[in-house]
Amino acid sequence: MEPGSDWSSYLEKIAAANNEAALAAVEQALFGRKAGALTLALGALKDVPPEERKNVAADLNDWKKKLQTAIDAKRAALSSPADSELADRDKLDVTLSLPEKPRGHLHPIPEFIRQVEKVFGRMGFDVAYGPEIEEEQYNFNLLNIPDDHPARDTQDTFWIKDVPNRLLRTQTSPVQIHYMKEYKPPFRMICPGKVYRKDADATHSPMFHQFEGLMIGKDVNLANMKAVMETAVRELIRPDAEFRFRTGYFPFVEPGLEMDMRWPATALASAVAGRQREDAGHPTEGAWLEVCGCGMVHPNVLKNVGIDSAKWQGFAFGFGVERMLMIKHRIPDLRAFYEGDLRFLQQF
After folding, report:
1. Which pairs with CB-CB distance under 8 Å and at least 24 residues apart come from 71-80?
2. What's the number of domains the chain is made of?
3. Which CATH number do you get for residue 335?
4. Is residue 307 located within the same domain as residue 201?
5. Tell me: the pLDDT tens digits for 28-60?
6. 150-172, pLDDT tens digit by residue?
7. Which end of the chain is more exposed for a tag (fewer CB within 10 A), N or C?
């Protein structure tokens, strides 16, 4: 087609195309590389007199844009189904039961810590947190732990290299020191968090979780401590648990006690678990198991934080979170908590 021809007929052909093949034929007739009408017209511009070439070229470019726009619009229209077609093809069955989307959940350790905070919160305990990189005086000195105590040995403690008197806390007890320095008695608090020691086997990890409790008042005694601890453990782990308290040594309490617990054995558990579970480090039902250290706060600790031990007294205790979860869910190996195995985690 020569320059100056009427291109409007192609607009009619584009509008009349009722499928993709018909539209493609019109597009090829216009823009084909060798025989397209618009392609030939643009190529023939060299034969147009110079004084007319500019106007002819502008007219052809306008038609090129207009025709290409019409083709694109028609192609979009052909690709969208008609309302009548949608009515038959795109029906929605509102009674159809769709598969549930998979949902994640908290890891059992932070989930259990939340439960601990709720249980002790109902008993009036505040929740406090502290730094995991601690000063030696807060981790040892102010807790009445002498310089020659084995816990200070590098076999048990991660000391920070080239930073004097800094370590990864070996217990959450330093949080109690920070708390007692900031608040005046009477008070009650728990402090959950990560702690670090150089232990690694089926029942120990270099990093694990503790929660400790502290209650200071004028008339607080061991009977109060036993009531709080037994109530919490029964609600958190086993409502049918039995308890006994034995004397034990901890530098920051006097007297110091250790709490043991046991729960009734079942015939199935005894038959299946037996000696194998006991060998793996998991307690057999019916046997006594040490679960907690506790006692009355040592007067030296109260003195170190500026509390008059002649007026105030109280108790402190500490539980291992993983240990309690192992009892609750009968988990034989602590390392399962940290391996990230979905087969293990999806059970909770």
Report:
1. 71/14, 71/23, 71/26, 71/27, 71/30, 74/14, 74/15, 74/17, 74/23, 75/20, 75/23, 78/17, 78/19, 78/20, 78/23
2. 2
3. 3.30.930.10
4. yes
5. 888 888 788 888 888 888 888 888 888 888 888
6. 877 766 889 999 999 999 999 99
7. C
